[in-house]
Amino acid sequence: MRLAGLTSWHADWRGLRVAVFGLGATGFSVADTLVELGAEVLVVAETADPDRGRLLDVIGARFVLGGAGGPPEELLAFSADLVVVSPGYPPHHALVTWASEAGLPLWGDIELAWRVRDKAGTPAEWLLVTGTNGKTTTVQMTASMLVTAGLRAAPCGNIGVPVLDAVRDPGGFDVFVVELSSHQLHYLARQSTPEPVSPLASVCLNLSDDHLEWHGSAEAYRDAKAGVYANTRVACVYNRADPATRRMVEEAEVVAGARAIGFGLDVPGPSDLGIVDGILCDRAFLDDRFSSALEITTIDALAEQGLAAPHVVANILAASALVRAVGVTPEQIRDTLAAFSLDHHRIETIAVADGITWVDDSKATNAHAADASLSAYPSVVWIVGGLLKGIDIAALVAKHADRVRAAVVIGRDREAVTAAFERHAPGVPVIEVSPADTGEVMPQAVEAASGIAAAGDTVLLAPAAASMDQFTDYAQRGRLFASAVADLVGGDADERPTPSRPGSD
């Protein structure tokens, strides 16, 4: 009963006993917030950054290392009233199983952030973004468009800045653009507050199997993603090219009056955003949407910014739909895109030398992302492999066999990748790179790629796999690729490569 009343920063949280599972960026922000609210906090984590562990002691939270095999004695003795679970803890984790069986309320950081969102005054509006791929780019674009329109906007959530840190910013914000992982959405679906998260607008960009080892099944993963639309008030934005996202909207429990807004690379219908003769158009947010449209920008203008890859254009349309729901004008969107650039490791042109383009898309950590990246180039020497996370790569290989001139296979799961080529693209040369030293992986892969690439080819690092078997993360993988390319091409590379202008085939 007490938890039901804790729906404001200004409610009485004092003395509430909260166990926090995990001490990454999210776990620490949860602990820090709860201590500030006056709760008693015990953090349990299997591993911990030493600095965060010391900071817990400074702020007044307790910490115990462990939990892999079940609750440690300190947790049992703590007699928690509530558990807040970090996104890294799957539902089958021993601690989560224990808490569920003990009947303890389980929150994620998103539910806690929603409950205390009024700390800085009038709560910000929330825009929610999820999908298998494109989340971070869409969140960044959306936030930039809002700022151009004069709104105080914060990109937060799974993008790297915990939502609770944004909520506690003393300056306050008008809009939070919240990137949500399927893990966060899994725990959000369990929210027990009488005032559940109710975004102004929401989007699931796309859906393809991912994180199956965490969720346990494709259906559970899909159900988690679908939760992004729950209680949406104004606009449920979906991908017309992905029927799964349409079904999510059709099945969602939303606030009366919320509209379904489609986006896609084809001609838009009423209540859609799309493309007509190379012009990005809005036929959703205007009075005369049955007979007219508003111009947002053009493919040619996007190409000048390196933003013309089909999957990037789809992200732009999704972001435009979200901000149009807030009231941002097409002119303000256009101004934003004229100055916007993608993050590193997202279809980033590293060098152009001897007619060969070297592209870093290390962020393509699953088959869906690699599919979008491969589709953007007509002739590819593909650097692929890593941790496949239980995903079968065969369909991806079969789909792009005609455009892949050669494959350079890296990573732990090389056997599954090479087997896919043997079966579905037997004519494509395959080169395996298998050094044990992380520092040697990319120099060898780049050298192998250079030996077969010819003028007109794109050497594309789009691994379709996670990186942690050989690298710290996808960013390190991309940096080492870029360094190896620079060492290879030296002064022959363009000093300032022009933005990529991939085709739309």
Task: List the keywords.
alpha/beta, 19 helices, 9-stranded mixed beta sheet, 505 residues
Beta-sheet strand percentage? 15-25%
Strand ordering within the main sheet: 7-8-6-9-10-11-12-13-14
The total beta strand count reads: 20
Please describe the biggest sheet, giving its number of strands, its sense, and whether it closes into a barrel: 9 strands, mixed
Proportion of residues in helical segments: 25-40%
Protein architecture, described:
The protein is of the alpha/beta class and 505 residues long. Helix content is 35%, strand content 19%. The chain contains 19 helices and 20 strands. The protein has helices at 25-37, 50-59, 73-78, 94-101, 109-115, 135-148, 163-167, 182-188, 212-215, 218-226, 243-251, 299-304, 310-326, 330-337, 367-374, 394-399, 414-424, 438-450, 474-489; strands at 17-21, 40-45, 62-65, 82-85, 106-107, 125-130, 153-157, 175-179, 201-204, 235-239, 259-263, 272-276, 279-282, 294-298, 348-353, 356-360, 380-384, 404-409, 430-432, 458-461. It has a nine-stranded mixed sheet, sandwiched between helices. Helix 6 (135-148) crosses helix 14 (330-337). It is globular and about 70 Å long. It starts with 16 loop residues before the first strand and ends in a 16-residue tail after the last helix.
